Amino acid sequence: MTSATDRPDLAAGLRLDGLHGSLSSPTTKSMNFLNEVAQHYPDAVSFAAGRPYEEFLDLESVHRQIDRFAAHLRERCGGDERRVRGTLLQYGRTKGIIHELIARNLELDEGVHVDPEAVVVTVGCQEALYLTLRALRRDERDVLLAVMPTYVGAAGAAHLVDMPVLPVAPSADGVDVDDLVAVARAARERGLRPRACYLVPDFGNPSGLSFGLETRERLIEAARDNGLLLLEDNPYGLFGPEPSEGNPPLPTLKSLDRSGTVVYLGSFAKTGNPGARVGYVVADQRVTGPDGRTELLADRLAELKSMLTVNTSPLAQAVIGGKLLENGGSLRTANSRESAVYRRNLRLVLEGLERRFPAGRRPYVTWNRPSGGFFLVCALPFAAGDDLLERCAREHRVLWTPMHHFYAGGGARRDIRLSVSHLEPDEIETGLDRLARFVSAHDA
Amino acid sequence: MTSATDRPDLAAGLRLDGLHGSLSSPTTKSMNFLNEVAQHYPDAVSFAAGRPYEEFLDLESVHRQIDRFAAHLRERCGGDERRVRGTLLQYGRTKGIIHELIARNLELDEGVHVDPEAVVVTVGCQEALYLTLRALRRDERDVLLAVMPTYVGAAGAAHLVDMPVLPVAPSADGVDVDDLVAVARAARERGLRPRACYLVPDFGNPSGLSFGLETRERLIEAARDNGLLLLEDNPYGLFGPEPSEGNPPLPTLKSLDRSGTVVYLGSFAKTGNPGARVGYVVADQRVTGPDGRTELLADRLAELKSMLTVNTSPLAQAVIGGKLLENGGSLRTANSRESAVYRRNLRLVLEGLERRFPAGRRPYVTWNRPSGGFFLVCALPFAAGDDLLERCAREHRVLWTPMHHFYAGGGARRDIRLSVSHLEPDEIETGLDRLARFVSAHDA
User: Fold this and answer.
1) Is the ipTM here above 0.90?
2) Which of A186, A250, B38, B74 has its CA 20 to 30 A from that of A226?
3) Residue B269: pLDDT above 60?
4) Which domains does chain A have, with CATH numbers?
């Protein structure tokens, strides 16, 4: 039997239903729709974009950082200019050239000890996630778990490798560990292989919330006991409350892990420079081959990378390497000004919501109160889907993200995500005024 | 039934046979082996590495090129510094920011007219290839054709999407078009969907050979009639004989295509700067959705890219954009010095082989005579597999690539690939002397 897709008539074009399924997925449609709305209303105040604050970024620093990293290389190889040039401008090491600086950074900022050989530098954290899922998805039985609501990019990477995502329930403290275990068991009973659970334990996207310490510990134990890897994505961890002796940042899952359960996904898009597109994965698990020899999972991920992007631009890595060197290896220090902006913005949005939506008075709007990061979630008194976002953008010139986009294709919901990261105080006030007018107008 | 891989004991490590099949493929093993040999014998003369010549690259130029591109942006947006900074240092357009310069370059250097909107800027050509195959591989019926011997990276990208590669026979003139048609028909009769054929028509890797004009025309016609896309990979096209009025470069498949049959894969690793890791795909085919609306294949590839690497580093793109601007949009001009080096090296290797292996005398060594590019192929009087390469490296300190690596896992063969691109004349003479001693020693 021959159908139209069996033998495409190229003159008449290809057919979408003959291309990979990810192109017809709700996730892809979500991302397209959100981009289109943002492009269509460039003058709107955007609580939608999760972009880092950019007023402290400049091109001069980029040049200086590249030179700083080049000087570091020069020192390391005794002034051999050909080697410096070869490292920065030629094809290079698949696992990257700033792995030692990354290991040092994790030590300084997160208290995590990692073998630099277990680090693979990637084209943003998104490639790190893809490589990990590509390795874990062997056939149609392999599935990923994710705490819902979840980052759209995680669902996207899973789509690319045809890996279904099974939702795990959240809890007030981050994740319902009992549900995680139940979902994994039920999947196994259906003949599936739950391989890993994706999560953002610190100031998560989209919820803004962080997991409690006890939850972190229980999570690692439960994952280990159930043969699940935990894919810990940590782009916002540095942007918490001002650290103090009485109030230290919560430890990452990776720093608590003693059983090889956690694969750590790192991003420099928010802490380094989004224009470099550099991220990484720490994969220090051992993989046993048919001959009984074991090798680092990182080396296996690097093999996949060699077929995908070959290596991460060493010039882009130099920008991040230089920034790390300029700050003694710490990005916490490097981001002190940005952190202050994010804290201020979060405070302004929380206070602004309180002024505009006093408790017990219509319209009934509620919201959570993250202690850091880029995001918070508001529940409106009515379902806030894509149609209403479009109308709000058109009539009120303010953008937000309907939360249903973070539930892998679920229906309309009352909650919306507000992103505070890249706005100035006056934009926040204007945006909240517009949001309040929109909510009042629609609260019939 | 529960097997060991159903519930991995993480403490004991992951098992390779529980991870994605590409990690156990012969291609992956090939690439690993070749890398290991090269690392183990750093003092060997390498006819193995296909790296571009790097003596004309320097970091000063990189800084200048970034600034040049920034100045171009500034001019385009009327001096709006925030927009320049946002474009270079923030998350950006998925399809890239140098698409217009790329379209102009294709016009100038290849005489190809393309819509800049049909260009997706990628992390090297490898990502372009991956995205194209990811789109085309919907299910297990979809297969790729490739002219054998073929570039290892093409087989690698196909592995990542679980797409089998069916070999098409070469001919003296590049590709046996009748075999292409026969392979596609036979596949279709087996219930498979041949989607595309991958090829490098100009100074191909590994053969060094170029397709004749008539073959190019017949190929496009045959592909069109059989509903196959042609994936034209063109990293070496600029490195032909000195162009003259009587001897113009052969037209690319893309420039001959009137039927939307050719997807063009471009690389700046050899013509721009390998350290930027920038390539692109021109995908001007139309894709028809379920609602009958058509959109550019490029836009569908960009959707996949948004789930894979989000966008290509704008700073890395600026390096290539600046180089294009500095050279009036032409990379042919920009590479005149490099082209002269490649021509010289190819001549030195061909003459050197002739002196060391005179016709009709033992050891009987023959070779092809490409008119440009980085590679040529020598047939030795004995099977030249991985074991012999390792021995040659150890005993004679000269590296080459066994051709069996380019046949997707075929057995040992007598032919080897020699790469000439990055060597100096004295290295070429030393390397050929060593090769001759090795061949004589093993020609029992």
Assistant:
1) yes
2) A250
3) yes
4) 18-47+336-442 (3.90.1150.10), 65-333 (3.40.640.10)
